[in-house]
Amino acid sequence: MPERDGMIRLMRDTAPPKQLAFDLPLDPRYGREDFLVGPANEAAYALIEAWPDWPDTVLVLTGPPGSGKSHLASIWAGRAHAWTVPVSGVTGESVTHLVSNGALVIEDIDRAEGRDEAALFHLLNRARERKAPVLLTSARPVDALGLRTADLRSRLRLAPGAEILSPDDALLRAVIVKLFVDRQLVVDLAVIDALALRIDRSLGRAREVVSELDRDALGRGRRITKPLALAVLERMGVGEGEGDED
């Protein structure tokens, strides 16, 4: 029987016996070829691609959780041979060592817990002196970080940057498809449509939903269908949970 339009080949097309579902982490794919570009992130992607022709030593990349900041930072780190540390890893004792590498990614500067503002300001100054590029990622804009150190706040305000916006419909659908492909799952386009129509416009939320669907389908020993997707969304408190039967 020929494969109908809109159907992607399904590796779990037949229903195997009920299986145990284990919470095994799926390593994210942070290669350049894995980053999907759309209107929501094209400015940020262009800025990363422009390196080393950056307008400043320090660049701030902002966007909601799960929007692709770490992916872009990883792409740049690979090109610049940069080290990557969380903001909590920037301390008075670590500044000299971190700057010595010549390029650095500092992730999640919006996380106040463990954030040493004096050390961060000192690092940015040392990096500028050594002309060592620093890429900072944040889930919130600089003015919403609640920084107490005026000099640091001023320094970050002056730093050029790019914001990743909420994905448009095309990008969200493309990311959902890729999330299934990364898990070696292929589903009917009706499933993609159902998810894209109901979930928040958040790439992080898309990852959560696909992960839950994968786990649920494996536990039930059945393929992922639109009714199953709607049932999982309803259980997660997303959408109406109504749909056609298999």
TrEMBL record:
One of its GO terms (cellular component) is plasma membrane. One of its GO terms (molecular function) is DNA replication origin binding. It comes from the Bacteria. InterPro entries: P-loop_NTPase. One of its GO terms (biological process) is DNA replication initiation. Transmembrane segments: none annotated. This is Chromosomal replication initiator protein DnaA. It comes from Methylobacterium symbioticum.
